[in-house]
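WARN no homologs supplied; continuing
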Amino acid sequence: MTEPTDTYAAILGATARIEWKTLEPHFARGQVLWAATELDLVEVAQALIKDDSAAVKGWMDQNLVALATDAQAQDWHERDPDNLWAVVVRPWVVVQERN
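OK structure emitted
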């Protein structure tokens, strides 16, 4: 196993569990990106920071990363899941519901 980079470690340290009500204002501004559970949330954030458009586009083409939808927001609002994790990569808040 390779050692994580300083950037990876910094992003990991900034990643935290979050309540949906805290994310709602960001969603209303169109700033919430959703990452599929099979992705590493920190790697997604790192790709955004590094402007790795090939990786981000690839994930988006596979529907693994996308703007959060109204349906997702409604679901999160109704369920108020305790397994939402997020990291800020301005202007985005990248969110992932973990298993």
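Residues 6-97 form one domain.
OK
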